[in-house]
Amino acid sequence: MDNNNEQNEFTILLVDDREENLIALEDMLEKEGRTFLKAASGNEALKAVLKNNDIGLIMLDVQMPGMDGFEVARILKSNPKTKHISIIFVTAINKEEQYVLKGFEEGAVDYLQKPLDVHITRAKVNVFEHLYFYQHKLAGSLVTIGKVNQQLERFLYTVSHDLKSPLAGIAMIISALEIELDTIEREELESRMQLLSRASMHLTQMVDSMLDYSRKSYEQQTRELVDIEELVRDTARLLFPPDNINIRIEGHLPTIITRKLKLQQVFQNLIGNAIKYNDKKQGSIEIGATDQHDRYVFYVKDNGPGLQEKDKEGLFMLFRTGNAVSRGESSTGIGLNLLKMIVSEQGGKIWVESEPGAGSTFYFEWQK
């Protein structure tokens, strides 16, 4: 059953070895929005079910030559792809208990006895039609709920991952102030307090942006004019790089209209990783961009440990991490996978070029 499309048609399979019975049953049940399939034997019925995935009800004659209705029902109910289809047995057999029980054991949901009462027959089929549409809507709702849950999980990963570095920097400044409070010069104290204020404001803006993102679909998310050079400088400063790490912008970074939070997340993760994994006494990180007509290709280049070929494979997969040693921080393997999804949303791609011992350059495309 296809749960992704709106279901408007109710398909009924009529099974009877007598043509006149099939015609009479279709005439009795004909209604707008209904489609009828016919089968004159058990084998034909099974073939019809396998060819049509949207059958909602089978009106199945019990007494047929060759394969009877009980056997057809048993085969259908044993197949995971067809066991959900409702079956009403249509029979001329008296409603003796043994036949009723046998029918229900084989998977019937109801009985109709020949000669058929028009009003009862229509009423029962109407009930199963309503039930079919309710089940279809429920299945569609479950698919939607599953997608929402995935988005929520991704959002939580993003929040925990992207807020970690600014929070760690704030904690580091506060810790240093506690140690040096009695000896620190007033000017230095004011400088650090201003840095704390900017970092706190930056975190507040990030949280507000993430909450806004969580409430809106991708199409509804705010697009704004973003000075990328300013964004990169602010992001790098609030990652609190150590003194031996030099971060510079090569050339000029453009100003574009885009979703600021998304672009900030990409730069924060790439620059943060370049800081975290750098193993040189004098670390170097370079950020630049090239204009590619309908998009920009940005890059973050470092002189860190680089990557082995085996580490490049699957680097952007969830929970995959490389073997580089970070500055005392653990890696979950979530960040790069998030970046791949964010960049893919923009219609671009992300990749890495790296040489062991000589550093890595991460490239990503961003539409104008």
TrEMBL record:
Residues 11-129 form the Response regulatory domain. Keywords: Phosphoprotein. The keyword Phosphoprotein applies. InterPro entries: CheY-like_superfamily, HATPase_C_sf, HATPase_dom, His_kinase_dom, HisK_dim/P_dom, HisK_dim/P_sf, Sig_transdc_His_kin-like_C, Sig_transdc_resp-reg_receiver. One of its GO terms (molecular function) is phosphorelay sensor kinase activity. PROSITE patterns: HIS_KIN (PS50109), RESPONSE_REGULATORY (PS50110). Pfam families: HATPase_c, HisKA, Response_reg. The modification 4-aspartylphosphate is found at D61. It catalyses: ATP + protein L-histidine = ADP + protein N-phospho-L-histidine. The keyword Phosphoprotein applies. Residues 158-368 form the Histidine kinase domain. It is an enzyme of class 2 (transferase). Its EC number is 2.7.13.3. PANTHER family: HYBRID SIGNAL TRANSDUCTION HISTIDINE KINASE C, TWO-COMPONENT HISTIDINE KINASE. This is histidine kinase.
